[in-house]
Amino acid sequence: MRTNLQLLILLVLLLFSGVAGARQEPKRLKLGYSIAITAITPQKMTYAKSVGIDYIEVSMNPLVGKNREFKLNDAQLLARAKQAKKAADDAGIKVWSVHMPYAKDIDLSLLKEEERLQAVALHQKVLTYCKILQPEIVLFHPSYYLGLNERDMRIKQLVKSVATLNMIVKQIGSAMVVENMLGFELLADAKRERPLCRTVEETRQIMDMLPADVYSAIDMNHIKHPENLILAMGKRLRSVHIADGTGKQENHYFPCSGQGQNNWVAILKALDQVGYSGPFMYESAYKDVKDMKPCYDSLYQNLLQSDKIDSILIAKNFPLLLQMEKKGTAEKALLKNKQLQQILTAQRERVHQAINSCKTVSCYAEAVKWNQKEVNEIGNELIRLKINGLERDTAVLRKSWNKCAMGINRIFDVYISSKAPRYPKIDSISFKRGDTLFLAQVQQLLNHKITGEKRLPFFELPLRTAIDILKLNGRDEAARYEPLNSGLNAAPFLKVGHTDWKAFKYSMILVPGLGPEVPGMALDPNGAKRCEAAVLRYKQGLAPFIVVSGGQVHPFRTPFNEAVEMKKYLVEKLGIPEDVVFIEPHARHTTTNIRNASRMIFRFGMPADKPVLIVTDTSQSKYIVERMGKTAMRDLGYLPYKNLAAQSPEDTVFYPIIQSQEPDPFDPLDP
């Protein structure tokens, strides 16, 4: 029979082996770009299709003057619309949207009723030509600039105009959308206020006043942190304008130009979260339409990499929560549970209050943490629910949950509040106390987390915040070089299944790393000597593999990885075949050198009944034999080995144990 511990370890192994596919991959979007109706030609459409464009947005602005006069007669307008439609159709490009004209006097919120009706009439005429283009979407600006203190009346005028135009838009088979506008400050100058829909709050207020079948369009250039507006609009978002900017000016930078301040990973995540399925519609400066697809591909790959990092960090630190997060019985049960949802609601309210009142990062940390009462109540509820797919043994389940909760709280303590980790010299927060930029970043992160979808599993808010806090600190070491059977380990991993283990005394030769204390030094000279000692044992035929172990440890936040640098030395300098040397690139201490090597044995299918040979210098060997056990019990709560014994001043042997698979979320850099 399996022990409770083995059941927990089995869960960890299953989750970790499938971590890359634990969350559904974000949907790829089709591409489109905005083009003036007067610029559409068969040649341009054919070229656009050939470089990956599937949709266009047709701007009608060139057809109308600022004084509400049409620049072409009716016959010319009709011909222009038909020519544009034919050019797009022949190239296989669909008209996704029509961008309606806008100017000071072409404003749906004009205060003088006669002028407002004239603006509405102009839009009605344009819509007759929109019918020819057959767009999915018709996009309107809510207003132009406003006079001082006109806002409330302007909103009322807009609501009337939208009610009229929406009926016509629906008659031509399209959906009406209203775009957010630039408005980081209320005043544009001494005499004017910025347009309507300038903030998340105002856009939400106005959209709530409009018919439910009028939707939102979001211009990523018009607002700082557009991801917050995306989440606020949710399912009501129907179209987007893609451009980078600062939120302060009409920059319309190309997203991959290196200009602007948008966080495109956050934007794409938000679009995926709300289920946006329209095109990625460029409305930006660009040199060539052919640059649009490579740009999107790059942004999408960055999103996938970010999701991969998140999934790995969750799988390694909090496998129980990853299991709960998967679509299926567990997720449904957690979403339906009133008590768990009440705890999440209370936590969201604490965070909301903190955003409005906190002056320190520690205040934010306390708001997002679970308190002990909540931890106990959640544990009781998880046990009571008896969810399929979760551990049935109540003691194991409670222990696993408590470790998750306390581990997440610990991340907030260390990486927001600057409390000391186990090893402050190497594992501390990356920001100085009192850093005002960090304070603003934490506030923004939390604001993002509580905006949008509210019906989530009870743990999502603190879990995702904790993962983002680790990344904000640059402390995603645990996700680097994963999965460990690829990359620098691909060749030796392939060799494992063809190894004649009977021919070797040991399963591996383990070489613990030695981090240099000198900034800029890649490999400590004494670390190189340990490698040289291991080569002597390898050439004696004692083991088929050398495992070099050590992460990015010394000095603080070093760019050099001990295991990677040791493998380079072994292969490039000492001539050891590349398929002989495994890297274990995460260990930060001698205890975890041994624990992580044991994990590799079980995960890679190496024989666990063969001993491991540790080769190092005499000082570390003495520590391993005489004092490391006490450190392991303090840090891990168990000894990550059995039958540890010295063979010589530089050689020690041990056997791996299955308990080494148990995660340690109190050390999130190498759990």
CATH homologous superfamily (4th level) name of the largest domain = Divalent-metal-dependent TIM barrel enzymes
Total domains, how many? 3
> Averaging pLDDT over every residue, what do you get?
93
Shape: elongated
Helix fraction bin:
40-55%
User: What is the radius of gyration computed over CA atoms, rounded to a whole number of angstroms?
Assistant: 30 Å
Number of helices, counting only DSSP H or I runs of 4 residues or more: 24
Major sheet characteristics: 8 strands, parallel
Strand content: 5-15%
* Number of DSSP-assigned strands: 16
Q: Please identify the structural class as seen in this structure.
A: alpha/beta
Instruction: Output the strand order for the largest sheet.
Output: 9-8-6-4-3-2-1-10
The second-level CATH architecture of the largest domain is: Alpha-Beta Barrel
CATH topology of the largest domain: TIM Barrel
Distance between the termini: 27 Å
CATH class of the largest domain: Alpha Beta
Poorly predicted residue ranges: 14-22
